[in-house]
Structures are given as C-alpha cells and as structure tokens.
Amino acid sequence: MPQYVLYVERKTFIHHLDPRTKIFLVVCVFIWSSVFNHPLYTGFVFLAVLSLVLVSRTFTQLKLFWFGLISLALMSMILWPLFRRGGTTHLATVFGISFTAESVMYGVAVAFRLVAMVLSGLLLLTTTRIEEIELAMTRLGLPYPMAFGFSAVFRFIPTMVGDGLTILAAQQARGVNVAGGNIFSRLRNSAAIIVPLFITTMRRFGDLPIAIESRGFVPMEKRSYYLSIKMRPIDFVTVAVLAVLAGLSIYLRLNGYGVVFPDVI
Amino acid sequence: MITAFIVSAGLYAALLFVFAALPIWLIPGVTAIRPGNAIPPFTSLLFGPAAAWGSAVGNLIGFDILGGALTIGSIGGFIGNFFLGLVPYKMWHRLFKEEPHCRSGSSLLKYEFVVLTHSGVVALIIPYWTELVGFVPFTPLAFIIFFNELISAAIIAPILMALVYPRAKKAGWLWTDVMKGYQYTPTEVKSHHRLGGALVFFSGVVGLWITILVGLGLGQGLFFGPGVGFAGGSLLAVGGVFILIFAVGMALLAKD
User: Fold this and answer.
1) Taking chain A, what is the end-to-end CA distance rounded to the nearest angstrom?
2) Where in chain B are the domains?
3) For residue A3, which residues of chain B lie inside 8 Å, CB to CB?
4) A92: in domain
5) Are residues A43 and A121 in the same domain?
6) Among A73-82, A102-111, B107-116, the least confident range
7) Which range of residues forms the domain containing residue A153?
8) A160 and A70 within one domain
9) Residues A73, A202: one domain?
10) How far, in Å, CA of B173 to CA of B129, rounded?
11) Do A174 and A66 fall into the same domain?
12) Can you tell me the distance from the alpha carbon of A126 to that of B162, in angstroms, rounded to the nearest whole number?
C-alpha cells in the first residue's frame, strides 16, 4: 500500500521545534545551497543537513528515497557538465565535446545542492505533522480557505487512492490490460480506470459543500484551532542562528567565496 | 467550487500514486509516462479556474510532498502546473464556439491543439525555473516534460472528454454551472482573444523549441557573439522573452 504520511514520532530536538522554525530551516538550506556553486561549500551544506537527519532519527524512514536521491545526484553530475560549458582547465574531450574541470566541479556542486534541498524538505515532513505545517502556514499568512482546501485534499487522497486501487483490480479482473502491451494501448486502457474513478469521486464529494456549510463554515471568519503551536525561546535562538548563517553565506558569495562560475547561481 | 478544487487536486495526486505501481517507461529506468498527466486538461475544461489551483496543489501534494521532492524546484512546479490547468480552459472559453466533447473531428482537432499548447507552456515554464535556480538544465527537462505531458494528454484526455463531458454537462458539473454569468463557449471570437491565443501558442510551442535549440548551442554565436561561454545566459534571455510573450497572450485572453 502507498505511504501517505512521512511523519515519524520521535522525541528529538528537531521534532520539538515549532513548525515555523523548521520551515525557516528549509528556506535557509535553499539559500545556503543556492548561493554557492563550489562542491566544497555545497558539500558542507549537504553534510550539515545529513547530520540533522541523523539527529532527528528519521534516517530509516528515508530508505525509500535513497535510490531517487542517488539518481538525482548522478543525473546532475552527468548533465550539468554537458550544458554548463565554461572554464579554462581542459579535462577531456568525449565525442567532440570538451569537458573542463570547472564544469565537472559545478555538476558535483549542484548534485550536493539538490540532495541537500530534497533532504531538508524530507526532514520537515518526517519531523512535522501535516496539520502542524498547515497551521504554521496559516499563521504565516496563508489565507484560511487555501489552507482548508489543502488539508481537505490531503484528507481525501487516501480515499481516492483506495477507490482507484479497487477500480484497477476490478477492471483487471474484467480483462483490461494496463500492465502490458505497447505504450498507446496501455494509455488507452488507463481511461478504463480514470473514468470510473472520476465519476465515483464526483458522486462521493457532490454533497461536500452542503456538509461544510451545515457545519457553519465561513471562509474568512476568525477561527480557533484544536491544535496549538507556540514559538519558544529555543525557536527564536534557532531562527536567529539560521538567519545569521544565511546572511553570512550571502556575504561570502558577494565577496567571491564558494564559486566555480561567478556569473551563475 | 470547493468540490471541483478537491476533485481536481485529489484525482491528480491519487492517480500519480495508483499508476506509480505500473510505470510506462519512456526511457527505461530514467523517465516514465504518467497517465495522471491527462487529468489537468480534462479537469481544466470541466472545472475552469478551480482546476488551475487543483492542478498546482495536486502536483505539490502528489509529487513534491508525498513523493519527497519538496525543493526550490517545487515553486516552478507549482506555477507550471497552475498554467497546466489554466491554459486549456482559458483558450477554449475564448477561442472555440464548439463544445470540447471530442465526438467530432473538429472538436477533437481543437482539443489536440489546446493539449499541444499547454504541453509546450508547461515545458517552457518549469525547466526555465530549474535552469534559473541552477537545479536541472533546461534542455533535457524540457524534452522530458513536453513529450510526457503531450503523449498522456493527447491520447487519454480525449477519451475521458468523450465519455465524461456529456454526463458532466447533464449533471451540472461544469464551471459555468457554478460561476453564473459566464459563457462556457464564446458567441463571437474577439480579435484580441485571437491574438492572445496565437501568442500563447507561439510562445509555448515555437518558443519552447527555439529555446531548446539555444540550449543545445545553436545560434549563440550569431545572436550573442563568439565570446559567450555559457548556454545558460543566452538560454535564459531567449526563454525569458518567450515567457513574456506568453504572459502578454494570457493577459489578452483574460481581458473581456
């Protein structure tokens, strides 16, 4: 069965941080890894994020993602030297394409950048409940109707996936082949799953607006929440440290540190 | 509208999950066709603006959050998928008097034109963002997104429309049934809408391929001089012009 929730219950420093602090951490990882394009610097950012994952004791939860992360890193190391051509230190010529040490280093730097960003996003999702993220986004200024729509979609995805898998099994039992044949026949046959799923979904959710309104839903009204989040002193200290590090990274970049190619991100 | 939004977003995200177990490989081990990609143009024509937000949120949840791919690239994914759901309904609503039932040759042809345009638009916007932030190079990603989107949507979505559109119309599920005062198809096609549609098509399809060619190194010496070392700078300049043309086209389509 698919996994809908990445959150893992642990008693760690990172789990106890306010979700807004963790969202700020993700933003800072994006800044730190984006301002540098030298592998030593982005590699350091990657190691910092990896150590946070280890501290949060969510490493085992991420086992499903390692293959994808390694593929992403390899793709970056292969593609960027092909498309980000530049530099003066000639390394090799393959099939008429000249590779420089700088372009290869840029590819490695971006690989670290990509993995650090994905890991920071996963760190947020494995240490924070979806409800907490939604509440944090509302507190950060996201209009409530948008947050409500977001949480409603999250709530109904398992139902829709369950319906989809039931329809898939039923259609396969009737002889619809979505697992074999050429691309065109498989795509054509997938309509036999999508159409009943769409009709079922529309019937199921047709009464949703009535149900919402009968419970007194007023989109822009001031609301109270069952769940509560609160910034504690440790959150303020963490945010301050993260902000200083983000400022420092921008300062270093502006002064020419941490770059292989100064003209690009 | 809330139902339309939830169905658009949820169906898109759920189908990404359901078909994840049955990948249709385009390049084995590298990229697979996602049948779920047929959902945005389909829901766009049924649900209008709600489907635009639904596509953006559906991709954010189904791919970025549940798939563990929440990165700075997700911003481009959100914007690209928003237009994936916006362009088909906006173009049809302004340009075509015929309904998108896909049960006649001309309706099917118009539908495929819209699908081709929206595939080009998303293949221009998302890779442009990933190139801009130094995430994934434009050229290979644009190839993958364009063909992935086009193949799924061009084959599956007309079948969905032919089967579902008459029922949806009868059941009062179309966006004009909720947003009263709007016409589903125009009684007359205005000249600025025609120009807007042409600009969106030009930027999304012609512009995409010109940008891809620049990414492959073509014409850089001609347009930017022999000293240009990077594909990135010239590619961003050319792609930026086409995104600007796309924005002008959408603004013309949005104008009454």
Assistant:
1) 40
2) 2-187
3) 66
4) yes
5) yes
6) A73-82
7) 143-214
8) no
9) no
10) 34
11) no
12) 42
How close is the nearest chain A Cα to the Cα of B60, in Å?
10
Q: Are residues A108 and A36 in the same domain?
A: yes
- Return the structure tokens found at A2: 């698919």
| pLDDT tens digits along A62-101 | 887 888 788 888 888 888 888 777 777 777 777 777 788 8
Whole-number Å distance between alpha carbons of A142 and A244: 26
- pLDDT category at B119 given cuts 50, 70, 90 is very high
**Do B68 and A198 make contact, defined as CB atoms within 8 angstroms?**
no
Provide the ipTM: 0.79
Q: Do B18 and A85 touch (CB under 8 A)?
A: no
* Chain A residues with CB-CB distance to B15 below 8 A: 164, 194, 197
Chain A to chain B Cβ contacts (< 8 Å): 186
Nearest to A164 among B15, B53, B65 (CB): B15
Residue B10 and residue A153: Cβ atoms within 8 Å?
Answer: yes
Same-domain pairing of A86 and A206? no
Residues of A with Cβ-Cβ distance to B19 under 8 angstroms? 190
- Taking CB atoms and an 8 Å cutoff, what residues of chain B touch A206? 3
CB pair distance less than 8 Å for B9 and A149: yes
Round to whole Å and give the CA distance between B185 and B201: 19
Residues A140, A23 contacting (CB under 8 angstroms): yes
Q: Is B2-187 assigned to CATH 1.20.272.10?
A: no
| Amino acid B228: pLDDT | 46
| Listed residue (B138, B146, B141) closest to B237, CA to CA | B138
3-state helix, strand, coil in chain B (%, to 5): 75, 5, 20
Domain count, chain A: 2
Q: Which site among A202, A205, A208, A253 would you substitute to test the B interface, given the most B Cβ atoms closer than 10 Å to its Cβ?
A: A202
Cβ contacts of residue A30 below 8 Å, gap of 6+? A117, A120, B71, B72
Pair A142, A51: CB distance under 8 Å: no
Residue A255: exposure state from Cβ atoms within 10 A (0-12, 13-18, ≥19): exposed
Tokens of B182: 């709007």
- B55: tokens are 């596509």
Nearest CA among A93, A89, A92, A116 for reference residue A261? A89
Q: Do B230 and A206 touch (CB under 8 A)?
A: no
Tokens standing for A96?
Answer: 């008429």
Where does residue A168 rank: exposed (0-12), middle (13-18), buried (19+ CB within 10 A)?
buried
Contact yes or no for B70 and A4 at CB 8 A: no
CB contact under 8 A, A125 and B65: yes
Give the residue from B212, B238, B204 showing the smallest Cα distance to B90: B204
